């Protein structure tokens, strides 16, 4: 998990994908989310929010909670 986490963090930090500050869903082509329009890059998110996104990706990829 530690290696996966570090690899994903580096990949997300290089990405231009923006995330909703409230629910952490990717923006993609949406103009708003959660009835708001506040989005930011992965690097702008709090460390615990970054951790949540990476952990969710791990669960999707491997089907297990960490």
Q: If you had to describe this structure to a student in words, what would you say it looks like?
A:
This protein is mostly helical. The protein contains two helices and two strands. Helix 1 (2-14) packs across helix 2. A two-stranded antiparallel sheet has the order 1-2.
Q: Give the beta-strand count.
A: 2
First-residue to last-residue Cα separation: 8 Å
Number of helices: 2
Report the sheet with the most strands, covering strand number, pairing sense and barrel closure: 2 strands, antiparallel
Characterize the overall form. globular
Which range best describes the helical content: under 10%, 10-25%, 25-40%, 40-55%, 55-70% or over 70%? 40-55%
Mean pLDDT: 91
Which segments are poorly predicted (pLDDT under 50) over 5 or more consecutive residues? none
Based on secondary structure, the structural category is mainly alpha
Order the strands across the largest sheet as they lie in space.
Answer: 1-2
Provide the gyration radius in Å.
12 Å
SSE arrangement, N to C:
HEEH
Give the strand content: 5-15%
Describe this structure in a few short sentences.
By secondary structure, the protein is mainly alpha-helical. It has helices at residues 2-14, 47-62; strands at residues 18-20, 39-41.
Notable traits:
two-stranded antiparallel sheet, 9% strand, mainly alpha, globular, 66 residues
């Amino acid at each position: 998990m530690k290696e996966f986490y570090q690899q994903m963090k580096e990949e997300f930090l290089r990405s231009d994908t923006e995330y909703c500050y409230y629910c952490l869903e990717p923006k993609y082509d949406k103009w708003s989310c959660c009835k708001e329009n506040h989005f930011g890059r992965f690097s702008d998110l709090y460390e615990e929010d970054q951790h949540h996104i990476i952990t969710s990706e791990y669960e999707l990829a491997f089907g297990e909670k960490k």
